[in-house]
Amino acid sequence: MIFKGVGDARPYPDHGLETDRDWADIPPRQVRLDELVTTKSTLDLRQLLASDSTFFGDLFAHVVSWRGDLYLEDGLHRALRTALHQRLVLHARVLELDDEGRPSAAR
To answer: Which stretches does the entry tag as region Disordered (predicted)?
Structure first.
């Protein structure tokens, strides 16, 4: 199995980060694919196979850490490309939320 789980929605509270600029303050780090729970269960193959799929967006996936789980909020196509290249690790910006859904002070 590629991911820890496949979901259809974001189970965590709204964190307020909406644009790539909002996420830019979070430094990227490595995350194992098998630790991620997706928040989308479908993917547009055109997006996965496009040579410029990251040209207009953040180069790093967006992950939310909440209540012991890592949720892949944005970057499913990057994660699948990583798996197709037989790599186990993805570079992502990880937003840490406390139990109430507030961003941690480490950010």
So the answer is: 1-21
